[in-house]
Design brief:
Layout lengths: L1 E5 L8 H15 L3 E5 L5 H8 L4 E2 L11 E4 L2 H10 L5 E5 L12 E6 L2 H10 L7 E3 L21 E5 L9 H10 L3 E5 L19 E4 L1 H9 L3 E6 L2 E5 L5 H6 L13 H8 L4 H14 L2 H21 L4 H37 L5 H14 L1
Helix pairs in contact: 5-8, 11-12
């Protein structure tokens, strides 16, 4: 089966990019033919190509027949559907803020957790019978378990592409300082990302992470405090594992503010034996091999359903027109906001003291665009 993965940016390596890399590698290992389409290429694309997985930013470069489109990015999925008529698709929602494409040939919407499924059903009108929940997973063969944790954590890592001194790092850094814990950062925003986190995670005792990053740290045997720019949940404990897993260890769980006091309280809950139990649970229940097999079964179902139901060109044209309308409306809102910002900045520029400095800063920013 030739699977076109219509993904998001293939520049920085984040959770979605690792999801796509693991899926494409799984398909290739089983004799299938993955192709990754993305409108922006960089280090993530080079990692795929090193595995002999084709990556393109031009759909015209694909002359081989495609059996199914796996969509991770909204616009990329729509572009692929319009470029390859009669090819069915499956779209995967990776986050609470995902806006799914609406198109007749999308046979199934896959949510990586219950939060994403709620988003599809309650905010975007996707019928429940068209939604499948396949909980996010981790490559347990790649993210190997480290030796048992020490009685007190010595080294911690903030693991996630949005970790930065301007987001949630200061509170974590201060709490770790007060607890005599050395803190490192693996983050694209902080320019400290790594292509193969599985090679370094085992050096740490504790991770501050969420979602797929948190699962990878758990698989490696680290104690994990769920944390991101959105908020703090706390130390993942075995008694709360099942509930948090249904939430992808993600946004819906992150309800507390990231403060030094809250982080210190969670650090005090460090329990190396319970962290080991959590690691065993994630490795037993969240294998990416099982998830990919279930996803492949959905591909086969959707292909069979599409073969039994001919395409509806009129409905497809109207769906494409609706998307273009949404894009045009969003562009107009952006122009209105820019106009409002320009008027406000003009008032600041006219102020006697701050005006000249602001004007120079705006000119410098404009030149950088």
């Amino acid at each position: 089966m030739r699977v076109l993965i219509a993904g998001q940016s293939q520049t920085d390596i984040g959770g979605v990019q690792r999801y796509e890399r693991e899926l494409a590698s799984w398909l290739l290992e089983r004799g299938h033919l993955p192709i990754v389409y993305a409108t922006d290429r960089g280090e993530a694309a080079r990692e795929l190509q090193r595995r002999t997985i084709p990556v393109t930013d031009d759909l015209n470069s694909i002359t081989a027949p495609v059996d199914i489109i796996h969509g991770d990015g909204r616009l990329e999925t729509m572009a692929a559907l319009l470029h390859f008529p009669h090819v069915p698709a499956v779209f995967v929602a990776h986050g609470w803020r995902t806006v799914p494409p609406r198109f007749p040939r999308i046979g199934r919407y896959v949510a990586v957790d219950d939060t994403c499924a709620d988003n599809l059903m309650t905010q975007h009108g996707i019928a429940p019978e068209r939604i499948s929940v396949l909980l996010n997973a981790v490559d347990i063969d790649l993210f190997r378990q480290r030796e048992p944790l020490p009685p007190h954590p010595r080294r911690a890592v903030a693991f996630g592409n949005l970790a930065h001194e301007l987001t949630f790092l200061p509170a974590i850094r201060e709490a770790c300082r007060q607890s005599s814990i050395e803190l490192d950062v693996i983050s694209a925003m902080a320019n400290t990302s790594v292509a193969e986190p599985e090679e370094v995670l085992g050096r740490y005792d504790l991770a501050f992470a969420k979602a797929k990053c948190a699962m990878e740290a758990m698989s490696c045997g680290l104690a994990v405090i769920l944390c991101s720019h959105a908020g703090l949940s706390g130390m993942v404990r075995s008694e709360d594992f099942d509930r948090l897993r249904r939430l992808n260890f993600g946004m819906r769980a992150l309800q507390k503010p990231v403060t030094v006091e809250n982080v210190l309280a969670e650090l005090a809950r460090y329990d190396p034996l319970d962290a080991r139990a959590v690691s065993e649970r994630i490795r037993a229940t969240a294998s990416s091999d099982s998830m990919h097999a279930a996803l492949f079964a959905i591909y086969e179902e959707v292909i069979a359903e599409q073969a039994a139901a001919p395409a509806d060109p009129l409905a497809e044209g109207r769906a494409a027109a609706a998307l273009l309308h949404e894009i045009a409306a969003a562009q107009w809102r952006t122009e209105v906001h820019l106009g409002t910002l320009a008027k406000a900045s003009q008032r600041v520029i006219q102020m006697p003291l701050v005006g000249p400095v602001t004007a120079r800063a705006l000119r410098w920013l404009t030149r950088r665009k």
